[in-house]
């Protein structure tokens, strides 16, 4: 059973989403809120698996609510009347977004993805680890467009000042977040921290060569990028690929 919270300042919008969700036997609507403040108060009183939140709301909008509720354990789906109001969702932990008016087939697709992630968490014996699953969707901006990019499509995270560059099958995008915060959300069995400024996906490493500095290494990614591995991380990389086992 998925416990759902609906956050929207428009009564008719809440009513319509409630109607669309009522056809699903595994959905329980545990509350409704007119703005982010009300939603945060409700979250103090009840556990929630999934929150549908509008972006433009008075008092506290959906973006601010997402920031305030960042430590909460639920999937967040933005609902917006305008596609250009999609946001940088990695920092906000957004799972997906839906453009209003909500189409039943689009809603069902989102619910199916939430169920899949929920099953993954339920089956895991490591409930204390809060790594994002490989199929987690990130809402990233490419030029003037926004696109959902899965973790498994990302080959590299690179720290650039106060931003992190994200390299994926869709191209290069940016996050307003620190690399250390990104690292905490990534599975260490899937991603390798090559240095203080780079995290790479292990299965996207094509080859490893000796680096320019003594004792250093350089990884070559499938997309052609070459990334230096810091000396302190060399032994871990050797262990991952069992370089010294032969």
From TrEMBL:
Query: Known PROSITE patterns for this protein?
Result: HTH_LYTTR, RESPONSE_REGULATORY
Gene Ontology MF terms in the entry: DNA binding
- Which segments constitute the Response regulatory domain? 3-115
Using the record's annotation, list all stretches that form the HTH LytTR-type domain. 138-243
Residue numbers bearing the 4-aspartylphosphate modification: 54
Q: Which Gene3D superfamilies match?
A: 3.40.50.2300, LytTr DNA-binding domain (2.40.50.1020)
InterPro entries this protein is in?
CheY-like_superfamily, LytR-like, LytTR_DNA-bd_dom, Sig_transdc_resp-reg_receiver
Give the record's keywords alphabetically.
DNA-binding, Phosphoprotein, Two-component regulatory system
Q: Which PANTHER family match?
A: STAGE 0 SPORULATION PROTEIN A HOMOLOG (PTHR37299:SF1), TRANSCRIPTIONAL REGULATOR-RELATED (PTHR37299)
From the Swiss-Prot or TrEMBL record, give the protein name: LytTR family DNA-binding domain-containing protein
